[in-house]
Amino acid sequence: MAEQSLPVVDEGAATEDRPASGQGISRRALLGTAGATGLVLGATGGAVGYAAAPAGATPLTSVGSDEVMFHGKHQPGITDGLQARGHLVAFDLAAGAGRKEASALLRRWSETARRLMAGEATGSHDTDVARDAGPSSLTLTFGFGHSFFSRTGLEKQRPVALDPLPDFSSDQLDKARSNGDLWVQIGADDALVAFHALRAVQKDAGSAAKVRWQMNGFNRTPGATAHPMTARNLMGQLDGTRNPKPGESDFDQRVFVPGSGTPAWMANGSYAVVRRIRMLLDDWEKLSLGTQEAVIGRRKANGAALSGGTETTAMDLEKTDAKGDLLVPVNAHARITRPDQNGGAAILRRPFSYHDGIDADGAPDAGLLFVCWQADPLRGFVPLQRKLDRGDALSQYIRHESSGLFAVPGGAAQGEYVGQRLLEG
Fold first, then answer.
1. Residues carrying an active site annotation
2. What separation in angstroms does the CA of 383 have from each of 19, 22, 377?
3. CA-based Rg of the chain, rounded to a whole angstrom?
4. Mind listing the pLDDT tens digit for each residue in 5-39?
5. Residue-wise over 324-335: b if at least 16 C-beta within 10 A, else e?
6. pLDDT number for residue 223
7. Dist. CA 346–CA 243, nearest whole Å
8. Going by C-beta distance under 8 Å and a sequence separation of 6 or more, which residues neighbour residue 234?
């Protein structure tokens, strides 16, 4: 949907067009892809049985074989394409646990992430949930919440950018499902691979930390459309049209903390704002197509601005119809979230959709697990959300129900674990 900012629509994270890394087949691929053997219905006489396995191992499809590297300048899961399945989970350190326990935990998590992202088992106690699958673009990303620093005696190392987010008038936040000492983002293009990683992270926490909250999400599976295209959210809108692109000259400046940044341990890191945004779908779906498009400021079919052109055509904010009315309404989401309408504020949105069933009133509990990345939330998310708070037409169809802000350090070099420069500095 809208431009590159919303806490809900249009600047979505990446498109479904992810580069194929083609890193080969992991040892978990030995038995071939799902579907190498299958249930056969309607055999002679109505018998039911299993088809014979092929003589040789079947290579993984590109979806299963795609691999993301764990070690690097930045942590994985920030600039990578949208993944089909995701889990967001926050942990609180256990009573009595401090810096020593946190360091050991991040070391365990990092080693587990490295192995799983390479398509390997976690070790002798692996659950075998993902035994037949390849890496499937698995990523694990780790961050620290505001409370982590007081729990570990590292208050002097806490970044100013991690100060709590201000209150917004549209917030209806559940504190039990907000914030946390530690945050983990898991994404993959296979649901079992993602679940396998989630269970491994939870088991690794051991007695050092306990789950505070967990949220599960999804996106369209790569290859589900005839050609790569911007993803859609549960409102049916294209979600990602105006997202910053890695090839743009100011991309790193907007998204990542400089290598000489303050504090030093955050060099090449980023800040993640995480929000569970419920979409009031029953109300939204009662609107006519024309009204929905006016709320967003873009065509639902192809994401083109109401001022004309294609999805990527620059929006003309001054263009009017024959009656002199603005083609893109003054309170349209796409207009309000444009960087040039917000002092240049921009964020990299990389969300998941979610559906958690039906609530007591019979309404779908569904919407967006909003995750956005920026070098400084006080210059990214905060000014944009304040602008949306003052008159976005979309606001009456969404509800912010939980919130978190996390400092995500730069990637771990070979031989390092995530956060080592903070915890051992």
1. 239
2. 32, 40, 9
3. 22
4. 444 444 444 444 444 444 444 444 433 333 333 33
5. eebbbbebbbbb
6. 86
7. 9
8. 279, 281, 353, 355, 366, 367, 368
